[in-house]
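Quick note —
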Amino acid sequence: MEGLKIYKVFVYGSLKRNFPNHFLLCASKFLGEAISIEKYALVDNGFYPYACKRGIKKAHILGEIYEVNENILKNLDILEGYPVHYKREKQEFIFLNGLFCEAFIYYVENFKPFPFCPQKQILILDKTYNCFYYPKK
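Predicted structure written out below.
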């Protein structure tokens, strides 16, 4: 569609390639893997992961950056429950080739435990951007 605004979006969970919600990005241009400059806690509530700005040990997040048009961004906002559940803001990221990029990221401000969560662990990224589990206290 001509005339639509183009945005860059950083994804780190179910929107990544080979994950269930990636279908929303099928018509979008994959720009590459990137790492967040800002540190977040990547939390798994038992249903999906989310980036959290405060409250827990934080690290840089490895994810993917896509160019999306405004219609796709609106669909992502619906999926993420923006602005009620998730917040969205532009942050700086670094591609694995060393180039910098500004893109939107969806995040929550504070860690909110989900009492109905069947999984009693939080997912956190270590400094090599690999996942490991850290038990909740």
